[in-house]
C-alpha cells in the first residue's frame, strides 16, 4: 500500500463569509479558540476590535532595553533554530539577533517552531516585546511580535501602537495580527448597519474605515473613534431588535383587563399594611397596560423586600375580576411555596372565590391531579409553581396573566409554550427582578419591556449593619456569628466566587464547609448547599425550619429565600463579587424585626477593592448602589459575569447614559418611518439575528 502524501491545501480566496479555517496558518485548535470568542467567519474577525493598545516605543539598540519595559527594536537575524524545552518538551524557535551596532540579543518564541523555517540569517526584523531578565541576568525577548523588513516592503506597522486582542487558550496575539492583516482588504465589502443619514448626523465612521482604524490606528484617537462607532452600531442593533420584538407582540391581541376601582379598594382592605408609594405607582402602571388590547410586557424591578409580590397580587386580583387566570412561576420549589402562602395571605380575605393553588414536583400524585384539574376547569384562578412543571403539565384555558419571579427575561420558547395554553389570546407578562439597575441600563438590556421600579422599601425596616472585615479580624466575624447563634438566630456564610466552573466552586465550598465545621464551629449545626448538590431544596428547607444554625453556600442562595430568623450574612472573598450581587446577598437578612449584619470578608483590603466594598457598607439603596457602581466601573462590571448578550465595548459606551436614549430615539424614528426596516436590510438582518440568538421575544 502506498501512502499518499497530503498535498498542502491550495490557498482559497478569502471572502467575508469564509470560515476562519481558510485564514493562513489557522489550525483546528485555532479555529476552536476563535469560536470561543464568537469568531467564526472572516467578517467576525474584522468586527472583533482590539480592546486596548500597548505602546512599544522605539529604542536605538539592545543597550537601551530595560527589563519589563515594552520596546521596539530593529535588528538582523544572526541564527535561528527550532528546539524543544528540555523538561516539558515545548516546541519553540530560538534566535540570536544583533542590533545595528552589533550587540546581540536572545529571542525566544514559544509554540512557534515554524518561525525557525520562515526566518533566515540576514533577515532584517522589527521586534516589539517586553524584555525579561534571563537566568544569568542577561536580557531576552520572549514571544515578541515581529515583522520582516524586505526590500520595497511597506514601512512596518510595529512601533508605537500594538493591538491587544481578547485571547483564549491556544491563540497567539501575533496570529491575530496576521489574520487581520490578511482580512483587512475585504473590509470594504462589509455591510453597514448604521444608515448613512444617522452616520452623518452622529459623525460616525463608515464601517470599513472603522474596521481599518480599529485594528490599525495611527493614533489612540482613531482607535477610540472606531470603537465609538462599533458601540453605537451594536446598541442600535439591540434597540432595533427590541422594537421589532415589541411589534411582534403587538401584532397579536391579548384579553384586555378593564380597570375596576372596587377591585383595588378591596385588595387594599385585605392587606395588613399600607402600600408604599412605589407599589401604588407600579400597580397603576400595570393596570394601564392590562387594559390594552395588546399584551403587557413589563419588568418590575425592585430591591429584595421592596414588596414585589403584593404588586403582582394586585394584578392577579384585577385579572381574576375580568374572568382571567393568572400563573406565577418561581425558580425553585421553596420559593413557589413561599409565594403560595403570600398570595393566599394577600388575596383570600377580599377575594374568597379566587382560588390560589400550588403545583410543584414535591406534591403527591393525587394532589397534583386535583390541582391540574382545577387549573384546566378554570376553578383555580391563580396557580403558583416552578417553571419546569408548569410548562409541561398544565392547561389553563383562560390564562390572562403570567408573572415570572426572579428572572429578567423570559425565553421565547417558554413564552410560546404558555401562549399555546391560553385560549384568550396572548397572556400579559410581568417579570420581577430583584437586581436593581439604573434605568439607562434597563433600557439597554431589556429594552423590549416597559419598566416599573420599586425604589422604596416598606417603612420600619432597620438598616442592615454592613462592615468590611480585613483578614486579621476574621475572629471578630466568627464571634459575632457565635453570639447571634447563641441568641437563637441563623447565619449565612457565602463562599468565594469561582468562575472557572461549578465543579471547582462546589469543591472549594466543601473544603470551606469542612474547615468551619471542624475547626471553627464544631459545636454549631452547619449545613452546606452548592450548585452541584441534589438535595439543595432539602437543605434549604432544614435551614428554613431552624434545624441548621449556619448555612454555608455558594452563590446559589442568591435566589430569594425568606428566612426571617437569619440575621448574619457573611461573604467570603467579597471583593470577587459584583456590588449588585453583594447587595443581593445582603437582602437575604434583615427580613425580621431583629438587627441584622452583613460582613464582607476580604483578603484584598487595599485601594480600589476596599473602596468598592465600602460603598456597599455605606449605601443601602440598591438603585443608588448600582448607579454608583456603574459610574465607577462601568456597566459590564456592574452586571458581573452574568450573561447579558452585549459586548464589553457596548457596555463601556453605557457610561454615557444619554447616548443610549439618543440611540433609542434613532431606532424608534427609523422603525416609525419604515416598520419592516426594508430600507435598511443590514440593520434588519442584524436585529433579527439578535432576536434569535438571545432570549428577547
Ligand atoms: P420582594 O419579593 O420584593 O423581595 P416581598 O414581596 O417578598 O418582597 O415582600 C417582603 C416583605 O414585605 C413581605 O413580608 C411583605 O408582606 C412585606 N411588605 C410588602 N409590602 C409592604 C408594605 N407596603 N408595608 C409593609 N410590609 C410590606
Ligand atoms: Mg420576591
UniProtKB/TrEMBL annotation:
Domain of life according to the entry: Bacteria
Domain Helicase ATP-binding: 289-454
One Pfam family cited in the UniProt record for this chain: DEAD
Positions of the Helicase C-terminal domain: 473-631
UniProt keyword annotation of Acetylation present: no
InterPro entries in the cross-refs: DEAD/DEAH_box_helicase_dom (IPR011545), Helicase_ATP-bd (IPR014001), Helicase_C-like (IPR001650), NA-bd_OB-fold (IPR012340), P-loop_NTPase (IPR027417), RecG/Mfd (IPR047112), RecG_dom3_C (IPR045562), RecG_wedge (IPR033454)
UniProt record, GO biological process: DNA repair
Signal peptide, first to last residue: none
Annotated keywords: ATP-binding, DNA damage, DNA repair, DNA-binding, Helicase, Hydrolase, Nucleotide-binding
GO molecular function, one term: DNA helicase activity
Keyword Ion transport: no
Protein name from the UniProt record: Probable DNA 3'-5' helicase RecG
Lineage: Bacteria, Bacillati, Candidatus Dormiibacterota, Candidatus Dormibacteria, Candidatus Dormibacterales
